[in-house]
Backbone:
């Protein structure tokens, strides 16, 4: 008979769209108990906490002192560092939503605090847990990747945050590119445009990786409908994935007459956010590094800031 694990006491900081999603998923994960929800807006904190039988708190101090084992930080980017560092220094394991922080310096502060306190730090790069991305990774395993093209476009968000498309959307794809190639981005060629917002709402980003792979991200908030596609060309195959429908197709065996074979690649139905939070809990229990480390978050942020001319 397997020993039942003691429950990990979790808190969620920030009860916006992403924080509410985390709260919902955490309430459905085995061996995890959602005990606290923090939001400076009392009505919001109470509403989300009540839905999942948790305690609402309205100050960072009360959240840090809540006796948590682990916390999800889903507050605005500029607040990530101070809250994450305070939690880590209190001995709490932290999953911080992407991007890890607003600045490279802040990202390093979080990473250093995790090391100094021997806590697990994971960055919420949820697309890495998309079954379609995992299927592409399996399909190209062992192949030399020639190029990667990612399109992540859609309508203008109803609530404009403090960031443009590079930080909000392209950070997902920067992480996917690094994950699929196992290599680092060494050259960036960004083209940015501002049409409806104070910050960039359209970006065409070109990259070269240390291993020679070239990559391209098209992202915007000016397309009337959502598209999330990933295309990978390798020496032996061409793989296309729709990250929304999770449909993955592999094209291979091209002949001199132009004919080729195709096959669908299985991607298992699973909610990426649940996979991500289960991975975080696994890392906490095993003490092993999580799938997406603080250093991953830092690299993704560095590339994004270089694209914005701030790196």
Residues:
């Amino acid at each position: 008979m397997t020993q039942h694990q003691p429950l990990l006491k979790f808190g969620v900081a920030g009860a916006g769209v992403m924080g509410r999603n985390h709260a919902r998923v955490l309430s459905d994960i085995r061996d995890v108990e959602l005990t606290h929800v923090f939001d400076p807006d009392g009505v919001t904190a109470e509403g989300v906490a009540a839905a999942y039988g948790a305690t609402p708190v309205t100050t960072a101090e009360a959240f840090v002192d809540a006796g948590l084992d682990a916390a999800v930080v889903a507050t605005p980017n500029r607040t990530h560092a101070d809250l994450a560092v305070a939690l880590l220094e209190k001995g709490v394991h932290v999953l911080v939503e992407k991007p890890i922080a607003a600045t490279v310096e802040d990202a390093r502060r979080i990473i250093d605090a995790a090391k100094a306190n021997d806590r697990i730090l994971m960055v919420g790069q949820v697309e890495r847990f998309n079954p379609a991305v995992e299927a592409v990774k399996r399909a190209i395993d062992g192949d030399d990747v020639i190029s990667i093209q990612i399109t992540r476009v859609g309508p203008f968000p109803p609530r404009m945050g403090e960031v443009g498309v590079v930080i909000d959307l392209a950070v997902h794809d920067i992480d996917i590119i690094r994950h699929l190639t196992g290599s680092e981005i060494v050259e960036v060629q960004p083209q940015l445009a501002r049409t409806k917002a104070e910050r960039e709402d359209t970006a065409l980003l070109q990259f070269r990786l240390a291993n020679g792979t070239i990559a391209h991200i098209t992202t915007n908030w000016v397309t009337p409908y959502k598209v999330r596609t990933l295309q990978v060309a390798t020496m032996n195959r061409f793989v296309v994935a729709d990250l929304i429908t999770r449909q993955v197709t592999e094209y291979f065996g091209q002949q001199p007459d132009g004919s080729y074979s195709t096959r669908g690649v299985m991607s298992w139905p699973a909610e990426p956010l649940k996979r991500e939070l289960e991975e975080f809990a696994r890392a906490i229990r095993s003490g092993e590094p999580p799938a997406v480390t603080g250093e991953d978050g830092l690299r993704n942020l560095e590339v994004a800031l270089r694209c914005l001319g701030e790196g």
